[in-house]
Batch of 2 targets.
Target 1
Amino acid sequence: MKRVYLDHNATTPIHPEVKAAMIAAMEVFGNASSHHSFGREAHELIENARKTVADALGAQPEEIIFTSCGSESNNLVIKGVTCGNSVCKIGCERSEVIISAIEHPSVLNTAKCLQGEGKIVHLCPVNENGVVKLDVLESLISDKTALVSIMYANNETGAIQPIEEIANMISGRNIIFHTDAVQAFGKIPINVKKLNLDFLSLSGHKIYGPKGVGVLYKKKLRKVCPLIHGGHHEFNLRAGTENTVHIAGLGKAVELCIADMDSEWQRLGELRNWFEAEVVHRIPDSIVNGADADRMAHTSNISFRYIEGESILYDLDFDGIAVSTGSACSSGSLEPSHVLLAMGMDHGRAHSSIRFSLGRSTTKEDLVCTLGALERTVTRLRNMSPLWKDRIKKA
Ligand SMILES: Cc1ncc(COP(=O)(O)O)c(C=O)c1O
């Protein structure tokens, strides 16, 4: 059976050149903090990767902190600038944090955790296309705001947020600005200096690198409290002997994705647009969610009304096709995606959604195969759905 992987926003396969770089790095067993030649070899691998990441972001190498994943990077900045410890003056003196309603759980739940410590967390709403409402954001910002954290691109819909406008809105007000760029980095050009960002998070496994490695960009003069205390690693901001192999893999992954970023954007955008047009044409009552937003070229979120996304997912999996839903398991039941609900959708439409995320290996043939399977699946499931039967009767 032909297998089709359309879940690149969940994770990406390791690029063969990344794998080769990691295998080579395994031979370098020294501790990067050691002063002998073995240590220096490991140190050099890490510093080369740091420079590659810094160059890709338009940053300085000393502004790049390696972490264990995107979630850790998000935790480090959110907790690290707002904790009662005095290293971050703004975070100490001000009590409010603003995030958007569509953030990844690693931002949402970290911010919620601050509420227990007496901080006030504002959730900025989004419009029907999943884009942050700038006028509301402006009204939430005050001289009590310590941190604004808004994701660069949403993982479920691909909606790109107006990061430049937000940076301009915040500029000169002594507020810390962080963006979770886990889904955008490596696919869209990002220059932290041009955007005047204070912090940015990224993750290795979304860009054909290994799982278990991430980065937090920290602007030079900004302060953050470490989450993990210990040795002097990562400029005293993230203790623990560096994971040389994963960091070397991340460096290679960054180099590769930057090299073909523009051509992949073009290729995947054309494939995605063709796929969406075909779905809407061939499958009645299918709606592209967030269609009018500026979106990541490889992401498509579509609702197939009157049936559940989970049923579609399992049916497609039977046919060898891997997709995802944004549903989350909560107290034993499936909750519809918080992102789609924040866009104002009713539960039915949100529950019936599927995310297709394309990647480097995706071909037109994959999408043709997916379309056929999808048409069969949706028809079969709808034939069993009382809601659909009702809809047909009324039509
Ligand atoms: C937008 C976003 N932020 C953060 C993360 C977490 O990254 P990691 O899996 O490296 O912890 C993800 C992962 O899906 C994501 O999509």
Note: The chain has two domains: 16-259, 261-394.
Target 2
Amino acid sequence: MAKMRAVPVAAPGAALQIVERDIPEPGAGSVRIRVQACGICHSDSLTREGLMPGLQYPRVPGHEVVGVIDAVGPDVPGFVAGQRVGVGWHGGSCGYCDNCRRGDFFACQTFTRITGVTYDGGYAEYMIASAGALARVPAELAAEEAAPLMCAGVTTFNALRNSGARAGDLVAILGIGGLGHLGVQYAAKMGFRTVAIARGADKEPLARQLGAWHYIDSRASDPAAELVKLGGAKVILATVTDGDAMTATLGGLGVNGAMMILGAAGPISVSPLHLLSGKRDVKGWYSGTSIDSQDTLAFSVLAGVRSMNEVFPLDRVREAYDLMLSGKVRFRAVLTMGAS
Ligand SMILES: [Zn+2]
Ligand SMILES: [Zn+2]
């Protein structure tokens, strides 16, 4: 049987190690993808560190996958071998549970497939994915360009386009890391008056280069007060993983403003009076389904939005993962599978 290289996590906390495995066969409704690139996301630590209850090991992480379909299982209309596709966090939905029938496919109750978490993901030369989880990848994007857009990209793009902000509105992006550097670009290209908020003055030139109209150094000034001076934010996109930083910014929401929470952070504290007096909102946002990812890729081509990546061959997976975890990657780490 033909073999592939893959990086399964053997048990919670176990070192990432390349092993040889049989190349899997796609079942009904699934395709096999020859992986070209896979981004490394902070959420991969759920699998690596065993932070998700009930997770079964060994498990291959990776939910920012781009590659080429090389085998198609039975009952897969719409996809053929040779097509370039991407797979993100959302691994498909059943179509018949209550949530699916209400159109909330992301919250499918019976088919809770999370790529690289509840089934094997893209730290491998091949993976199996449900047809419903596939996004078409435009020819204009190289695999390593498209990969980070399958999570960091769709999360920020989809949150912004569903935020209720309209062209010209004041939209603040809290944090300029893996998510935030994309959030600033999408917000600017969508026509929002885009404010970037980060710690330190050193990030200002980059924020401006990414399209920010204004920059707030949250070390040197109170980000909430600065946003109020600008008229109050219609939307604050909270991409940081720090609840205190979110709390410190909430006061900058304008009337009818909403904070969209994307970063998994510690508790935040909100003043009920502040919320009710201005009909303000604090809301979580789920990344999106495969069509949201496909829209993200298409918009990124249209508007010239790109992720800034450090690219590593699969052999250097351990180094790349550790760099991501320590926050030292500028701005997304991407694995490439080499001979593809
Ligand atoms: Zn992710
Ligand atoms: Zn369902």
Note: The chain has two domains: 3-148+288-336, 154-284.
